[in-house]
Amino acid sequence: MSYQIGGSLVKLVYFSREVDSTDPGGRLNFQYFETDRIDDCIEFMKLLRDKHKALNGSRSQELCVMATGGGAYKFYDIIRDALEVEVLREDEMECLIVGLDFFIQEIPREVFTYSEADPMHFVSPREIIYPYLLVNIGSGVSMLKVTGPRSFQRVGGTSLGGGTLWGLLSLLTGARSFDDMLAEAEHGDNTKVDMMIGDIYGADYGKIGLKSTAIASSFGKVFRMKLQAEAAEAAEAAEAAGKSEHHESNSDVHGDAHDDSHSSHSFSSADISRSLLYAVSNNIGQIAYLQSQIHNLNDIYFGGSFIRGHRQTMNTLSYAIKFWSKGEKQAYFLRHEGYLGAVGAFLKRQPANWGRRASLEGIEDLQEWRKSLKKTESETKS
């Protein structure tokens, strides 16, 4: 098994075979835990360890776990002592690339493009994939220029990522988990919170290519609406106070003035969630475009647990790349976008005959390996 521990989530990948199966292959399984619940993750890994030992007759000293991410160092001693197995730590950025390359080249119906008109248009696995830009969106964002199997450079990033969205929405809404926040955003209307081009110009700003529905200012309506709501509350309180000479009545009126009744009629927590999701996603999309432009990269892959297959997030990122590049660059997404690092770490020391490749040692020779395999298949058919 392997895991990647980030600032917010633990991503776990483990291999399993059916007990009575004669197939040398098996199944890759994916699981995640919040990093704050690392103890639950460790207990789950203990169960996997014990099951593996029972099925294969292995001893603890014969087993190893692959680890990557910042938490692979932070929680190293805790996990090693709890599992009583060897824990091998791998470089996070390299694991991301190994995992992504594997998905692009080996797994059908994994990589796809996204648009409102054609959601989840799957792309066939391909051999020639370099160069490309990987935008990995976790708690923060890292952007990697990749020119070969182990040839990459971190060219940029931003601190405004999934952790930003999670943190701010936990303060602004009642949502307690990231999935709750995404679910709220699904039903929100950001135009109640954001100032749109149409709010300023009354129509499209065609001269510079901006539609009236484009966001001019995230949260741009909130301050004015808050002032209006406070003024209305003050007026109501003054009117009520003038009609009553009783202190108790006055107290009741002022108590009512502190609720969010007026604000709640203007916008909801769902509207706030959608607005902030767009703000973070648009920011990431534009920075990704700028980095791809600087480094002359046309293929942009978005990974990381921030996305989670959420259609609004993918549509925003995809639209941003298409808009800024005038259609010259393409955004790609993955079904298992949050597990690139964990899969990459797993591939560094995979089970024998697990069904995909014998080893990733000598990954630089992967293209030659694939060519020779195809040649052998062709000769067999003929």
Automatic annotation (TrEMBL):
Q: What is the superkingdom listed in this entry's lineage? A: Eukaryota
* Gene Ontology cellular-component terms listed: cytosol; nucleus
Q: Which GO terms describe its biological process?
A: coenzyme A biosynthetic process
Cross-referenced Pfam families:
Fumble (PF03630)
Q: Which UniProt keywords apply?
A: ATP-binding, Coenzyme A biosynthesis, Kinase, Nucleotide-binding, Transferase
Q: Which Gene3D superfamilies match?
A: 3.30.420.40, 3.30.420.510
InterPro entries registered for this protein in UniProt = ATPase_NBD, Type_II_PanK
Segments of skewed composition (Basic and acidic residues): 242-263
**SUPFAM superfamilies, per the entry:** Actin-like ATPase domain
* Chain residue ranges for the region called Disordered: 236-266
Q: Name one GO molecular function term.
A: pantothenate kinase activity
Spell out the protein name for this chain.
Pantothenate kinase PanK
